[in-house]
Amino acid sequence: MTPHELSSSSHLVEHLRALLGIESEIERIQAWGDLIAERLLAGQRLLAAGNGGSAAQAQHLTAELVGRYREERQALSAIALHAETSALTAIANDYGYEEVFARQVRAHGRHGDVLVLLSTSGASSNLLAAARTARQLGLVTLALTGPPPNQLHSLCKEAIAVRQGSAATVQEIHLVVVHLVCNAVDAEVSRRLEHGRPEAA
Fold first, then answer.
1. What is the C-alpha to C-alpha distance for residues 144 and 187, in angstroms, rounded to an integer?
2. How far is CA 68 from CA 59, 62, 98, 122, in A?
3. Taking burial as the number of CB atoms within 10 A of a residue's CB, which of 23, 118, 120, 126 is the most buried?
4. H/E run at residue 69
5. What is the pLDDT of residues 120-173, one digit of tens each?
């Protein structure tokens, strides 16, 4: 086996171990889906943010909610804060990069909205600032992080941590969690509409 093949094989093994490691979080993932469905059907919104690869994962989440995951359903309100490039660069220029998400949370966030933050390190200062701001405003804060303990994990109301693996592996598992959350959202939306209860309980 060549060094390249060995590296690829090691990555797959690492991925599988990390994937099995989140099996214990299935109930929490389902609960997140139920919560997000309840809040968004009630007219509230989801805000999401991340840096680099985690930004792509956060935007994947909002795209699935605004569009659809598998089943046809109504559009749900979700905004990827890092995708607002003019706002992002203006805030960074005027207030510093640490404030790029917190400032947008102040603008768009309302009590009862949901903020989802993704970070492999759990230490990005702009995400920590966003979490603190969201808590002050009464948003529900959820995080996907790498191995605990980390600051973002501690700051948010709830967090799912990928407890082992490289940054690349953590991001891959985050995408799996995003899809599982979206599947749970769709199931809860369907259940509520079938029972004639689109609004929050």
1. 21
2. 13, 10, 32, 28
3. 118
4. none
5. 999 999 999 999 999 999 999 999 999 999 999 999 999 999 998 899 999 999
Contact 167, 18 (CB under 8 A): no
Q: Is residue 177 within 8 Å of 22, Cβ to Cβ?
A: yes
* Number of neighbouring beta carbons within 10 Å of residue 70: 11
CA distance 152 to 154: 5
Instruction: Tell how many helices (H) and how many strands (E) occur in the chain.
Output: 8, 5
Residue 191 CA to residue 173 CA, distance in Å, equals 27
Nearest alpha-carbon partner for 87 in 105, 72, 71:
105
Q: The whole model's pTM is what? A: 0.92
Torsion (CA) 132, 84, 186, 34 in degrees, nearest 10: 10
On average, the pLDDT of the chain sits at 94
